[in-house]
Amino acid sequence: xxxxxxxxxxxxxxxxxxxxxxxxxxxxxxxxxxxxxxxxxxxxxxxxxxxxxxxxxxxxxxxxxxxxxxxxxxxxxxxxxxxxxxxxxxxxxxxxxxxxxxxxxxxxxxxxxxxxxxxxxxxxxxxxxxxxxxxxxxxxxxxxxxxxxxxxxxxxxxxxxxxxxxxxxxxxxxxxxxxxxxxxxxxxxxxxxxxxxxxxxxxxxxxxxxxxxxxxxxxxxxxxxxxxxxxxxxxxxxxxxxxxxxxxxxxxxxxxxxxxxxxxxxxxxxxxxxxxxxxxxxxxxxxxxxxxxxxxxxxxxxxxxxxxxxxxxxxxxxxxxxxxxxxxxxxxxxxxxx
Length: 338
Ligand SMILES: NC(=O)c1ccc[n+]([C@@H]2O[C@H](COP(=O)([O-])OP(=O)(O)OC[C@H]3O[C@@H](n4cnc5c(N)ncnc54)[C@H](OP(=O)(O)O)[C@@H]3O)[C@@H](O)[C@H]2O)c1
Known about the structure:
Elements: E1 4-10, E2 23-29, E3 38-46, H1 50-54, E4 74-82, E5 92-96, E6 102-105, E7 112-114, H2 120-123, H3 129-142, E8 149-152, H4 158-169, E9 173-178, H5 181-190, E10 195-198, H6 204-211, E11 216-221, H7 225-234, E12 235-243, H8 247-250, H9 264-268, E13 272-275, H10 285-297, E14 305-309, H11 314-322, E15 329-333
Bound molecules: NADP nicotinamide-adenine-dinucleotide phosphate (NAP).
């Protein structure tokens, strides 16, 4: 156990793009636990675009992080002290541990115990929130059929790269939208997407006509903004738009208004546009995990980790994620697994 608990606290609410000085670094004594509490030492910290929304003074699917509080974040860690029934020292758990070395969780805190022999990196990516988001969003809301065309944005990111591969497993024609030529090459050459569009250098609507000649049946929307706008015009009758996230609009004080053609296009093309939060499917996790683990094991589902070393790098790593620095799942190694 290190002698101190290093933390990033939310110092101020960002007024535009996130800045490193929106957070303050502190070091204090490792906390003691009380009755029914458990102390968890962080091993891996997930960085997620949604973290940016949590620092606004607006409730999302969770309350906003309070000023002066540790920044929230999804953590896989090890129990180092426990007064809580069902958890013992050495257990590996996942939950909202925040940007800190040690978190005290009360009896009411949601902690999910993982098998100790698990591949923890996979549990934070392809077999964790990332993989489950891709799985349920695509399969439950998108409901793909073999031969359909699937378009996915932020396609070289954590969720998008998994969505495209699951769509290929289901026999679809898959096109991804990403922000660099290198990312576009990776999703086609390594992950087996049928096509890719660099939204920073190409006219997305124009290239969609070539890459999706039969139109789009499912648009898995990770970005909103201009890519959603372009996809909307290419949707086929009966198409589904899976609203997973709006990363193009998180890091700004002036989000764009919704796309043109709404709701008229939904009406005339009989489109369904539906949002979801991965936690909605918590009670069906085992089913998804069985498929994801099997596809990883048989080589049909690949995943890439963008590991950042050290808690001290969390603010700049999140800022970089929002700017598209990452390929695959960005996470932080806070401490060693053993
Ligand atoms: N609904 C849920 O339960 C749920 C759960 C997890 C994640 N999500 C959502 O899923 C989406 C992807 O999350 P992730 O964790 O997999 O992150 P990620 O895709 O690994 O990282 C974010 C990516 O977004 C892209 N991006 C940034 N600004 C953009 C812009 N203006 N236009 C287009 N692309 C932009 C960047 O790639 P480029 O180089 O391509 O720009 C960046 O790499 C996010 O919207 C997130 O909020 C939803």
